[in-house]
Design brief:
Blueprint: H1 3-10, H2 20-27, H3 47-58, H4 62-71, E1 82-87, E2 90-96, E3 101-106, H5 113-128, E4 132-137, H6 138-143, H7 145-161
Parallel strand pairs: 3-4
Antiparallel strand pairs: 1-2, 2-3
Length: about 160
C-alpha cells in the first residue's frame, strides 16, 4: 500500500461523519502509531471554522499573545504549534499536530459554572478523539509564563514517553 492509500484510509469520511474513534474501530488500534499523529491536520473541521479562526487570530488576548511568542516558530522544544486552529468541531487556542496536543488559554469567564461545564464537555470530547488537552488561566500565563512552560514541558515529556 502506498503512502497516499494509507493517508486516505486515515482520512475521516465527511459523508459518514467519521471521527478519530471511528477510524480506530475501522482500522484497528494497531494501525495507528501512538507516537505519531497520522490523522488529518484539521480532523474534519467545518469550513466555517477557518473564517472564525482567522478573526480570532487577529483579536488575540494579552495572554494568548504572550504564550504565542514562546510557542511560535518552534521556539518551544522545537515543536510546531499553530494558533486558533480549527480542529474537529472546535477552534483550539494552540495545537501541536505532531503530539496531538491542545493548549487552551482560559480567561476569567471560564470560571463561571456554565462555561466550566462547556469546557469540560469540550475537553472530554477532544480527549475521546485522542487529543491531549492542557488548560492554563490567562492570569497564570501573564503572571508566571515560566511556570506554564515548565508544566507544558512536563506534559510533552509524558506524551513522548507514552
Amino acid at each position: 500500500m502506498n503512502q497516499q492509500q494509507k493517508y486516505s484510509k486515515l482520512t475521516p469520511s465527511s459523508s459518514r461523519g467519521e471521527d478519530r474513534g471511528e477510524i480506530k474501530k475501522r482500522l484497528g488500534s494497531s494501525d495507528i502509531d501512538k507516537n505519531q499523529n497520522k490523522l488529518p491536520l484539521h480532523a474534519g473541521a467545518n469550513p466555517k471554522l477557518f473564517t472564525n479562526a482567522k478573526h480570532l487570530r487577529l483579536d488575540a488576548t494579552k495572554a494568548e499573545g504572550i504564550l504565542w511568542e514562546k510557542l511560535r516558530n518552534r521556539r518551544f522544544l522545537n515543536l510546531k504549534f499553530r494558533r486558533q486552529h480549527p480542529l474537529h468541531a472546535f477552534i483550539v487556542d494552540f495545537y501541536c499536530h505532531e503530539l496531538a496536543l491542545i493548549v487552551e488559554a482560559d480567561g476569567g469567564y471560564h470560571n463561571e459554572l456554565e462555561q466550566h461545564k462547556l469546557d469540560k464537555s469540550r475537553t472530554d470530547e477532544l480527549e475521546n478523539l485522542g487529543f491531549k488537552v492542557v488548560r492554563f488561566t490567562n492570569k497564570n500565563i501573564i503572571d508566571n509564563i515560566e511556570a506554564v512552560l515548565e508544566r507544558l514541558k512536563g506534559v510533552v515529556t509524558e506524551i513522548k514517553q507514552s
